[in-house]
Amino acid sequence: MTNDLLKKGANLEQKVIIVADDLTGASDTGVQFVKAGLKASVLFKPSFDDISRYKEEDVLIVDTDSRSMPSEKAYNEVSQVVQPFLQEHLHLFFKKVDSTLRGNIGIELQALMDLGRFDAAVIAPAYPDAKRSTAYGIHYVEGVPVHLSEAAKDPKTPVLTSSISDLIAEQTNVRPKNLTQQAIHLALTDTSHEVASLLKHGHQWFVCDAETNNDLTQIVELFMKMDQRVLWVGSAGLASALSAYVAKQRSSIRPKKEPVLIVSGSASQKTNEQFAYLRDQHDCLEVKVNPLNVLNGCEAWERKSVMDQLLMRQDEDILLYTDARPEIVEQMLAYGKAKGMTRQEVGSTLSVCLGMITKDIVELTGVKRLFLTGGDTARAICHKLGAGGIQLLKEIEPGIPLGRLVDTHLYAVTKAGAYGQKDSVLHAVEVLKNIEGEDECQNQSLL
């Protein structure tokens, strides 16, 4: 299966998939991405169902528990456990290895490379913060070659060599090419083409020296800029460098902000001034409802007219309001009086109509952010949208709350007609557009 989106370090809007051979390693590697602001979860037995359950996660860490397994079983376990991630989505893959080189490092790396998805395996097990480093292909723990450290006496997976290339070659018959810090630096600054030449001539496995966190950062930057599908292989140190790169790239892509539907059933002069300021400072599609059409039986035509205006402009902020010019209000009241309607009944009829139009707009555009001004109008809209109430989340200005409409996925700011400052509507729109999720709002709620 080809994976074009893994080129240049993968499509960073997709997930990071980490394959670890034990639980503590899975956690200490995954948490590096959490520190960078990403969401991560450890999975024990991944399945297709797991992927859908964790669709909001940025990083999924799979614990294969294969560190002390026989080599053939470890190979099969890794091959099988990644299958759910090889179907429809294109992800960035990270093979977590022990920073003291214990376990089936070469075998499990071979299992992933045999999938045929990767052009290169970038192997950097150094973890400077824990005093694990690599120099000229030799791996050290607190300055001592790892085969002379405590790892040599591990009861299950003793480490018998400090040469990363030798260890991998013994398990796989593949001898990685070692890249010194100098070679990586020269390639990164385009003063050497050694790495590009090695890739061009078929070298796929690279052991990278690293003694500092900056060395790991340079490794990530070098291979991210190359047109290669990379399998990242390392411990929490490389994960930290990679997570910082991923987080930085994602933050540079400004997320699309949700459109806001602003609905007014208020004839307040204060609200009119706030809308005038909004128009001056912010672009939005204005949709004006003629109240005379609503009262004289042409409500269906008025609703259709609104929908026609929105058909080609569904991703914009929308200002929906009734024509409240003095002469229109006077004609509206006169018409209602002639029909035997009280002022309250006239207002209620208009509020109900705005409620139905708001529901039409929500269903057509999928808008999830509402600004509602005018108490009768706000209540009518909530009713038409099937809201069982409003869960109050926070107060964005004195007397102007933000809430979530119960039984829906909608957020709403409500405001009495005569409330607020000149920029209150604009401020409310900005708050609504920047909501990242329900949890964030709940964390800011006033209890």
Secondary structure elements and pairings:
Blueprint: E1 16-20, H1 23-35, E2 40-43, H2 48-53, E3 59-63, H3 71-81, E4 92-96, H4 105-113, E5 120-124, E6 132-135, E7 138-141, E8 144-145, H5 164-172, E9 177-179, H6 181-188, H7 194-200, E10 205-208, H8 213-224, E11 230-234, H9 236-252, E12 260-264, H10 269-281, E13 285-289, H11 291-295, H12 299-310, E14 318-322, H13 326-338, H14 343-365, E15 369-373, H15 375-384, E16 390-397, E17 400-405, E18 411-415, H16 424-433, H17 438-443
Parallel strand pairs: 1-3, 1-4, 2-3, 4-11, 5-10, 5-11, 9-10, 12-14, 12-15, 13-14, 15-18
Antiparallel strand pairs: 6-7, 7-8, 16-17, 17-18
Helix pairs in contact: 1-9, 3-4, 4-5, 6-8, 8-9, 12-14, 14-15
Give the tags.
seven-stranded mixed β-sheet, nucleotide-binding, NBD_C, carbohydrate metabolism, 447 residues, Rossmann fold, elongated, eight-stranded parallel β-sheet, ATP-binding, 2 domains, 41% helix, disordered C terminus, 19% strand, kinase activity, alpha/beta, disordered N terminus, Molybdenum Cofactor Biosythetic Enzyme, Chain A
